[in-house]
Amino acid sequence: MFDKSQLMRGTLEGCILKIISLKETYGYEIIEQLDQHGFKGIKEGTLYPLLVRLNRKELIKSEMRPSSLGPKRKYYQITKDGLDMLQSFEDSFYDIYNTVLHILKEDGHEE
Description:
Layout: H1 4-22, E1 25-26, H2 27-36, H3 44-56, E2 60-67, E3 70-78, H4 80-104
Helix pairs in contact: 1-4, 2-3
């Protein structure tokens, strides 16, 4: 049986960058966005290490801010390097997607 989690893991960082590029956001909101778009069951234990890694690579930056609903929240913004990486991810993803789609259609299967 095919391990779908391996495929999803390879695209998760790019998807997180995309979500953060659309607006400043915080962890729980990112998890909600991922869930709404089909990344079901992403847990904090998966997301936060990725955010730390993206922050360490300076692809995103974070800032603690007060929340009206409780403790401070860490908000994330994409950096210039993050936007460049996102563009590179999108280009590579679509190249791979189109290649795989072409191969899968070889035997007559249509999407």
